[in-house]
What we know:
Blueprint: E1 2-9, H1 15-25, E2 30-34, E3 39-43, E4 49-54, E5 57-59, H2 64-69, E6 80-88, H3 94-109, E7 111-114, E8 135-137
Antiparallel strand pairs: 1-6, 1-7, 2-3, 3-4, 4-6, 5-6, 7-8
Helix pairs in contact: 1-3
Amino acid sequence: MTVDVIALCRVRPDIEASVTALVAASPRLRVVPVSHGAVIQLADDDGRPLVSIEGPVLVQVPGEAQRLLGPEVTMIDSPLWWVEARATSAREGAEDIARRFAHQLVRLLGGVVWPIQDEGSEKPGSAGSPAGVSAVTP
């Protein structure tokens, strides 16, 4: 199974922001392009993928992010850039890598990260930890 972490960015991610976010996610992992570059995987030294990151998708329809992710993302309006990072649930630490990538991208470009991860909770959606937005930047 996979765990999705989504960066909803105010600005289209460029190469510089994407590389900075990849390094912030984990500087020791290998970057492997897949599907002619439409997906980038972060893999360990043995080539096993931990996180797959899809290319940015422009969301122009007002309310579309809220329709797909829930009312927690109302603080960012379309147009926005949807960047999805999928972490394998089979490898410890993979979700944290995806989350670091998304948070760094949002720090650089503005936007929000979905889902929320409350302080003190291990996983989003655990008891007392509602899914929602985990970062908002101007």
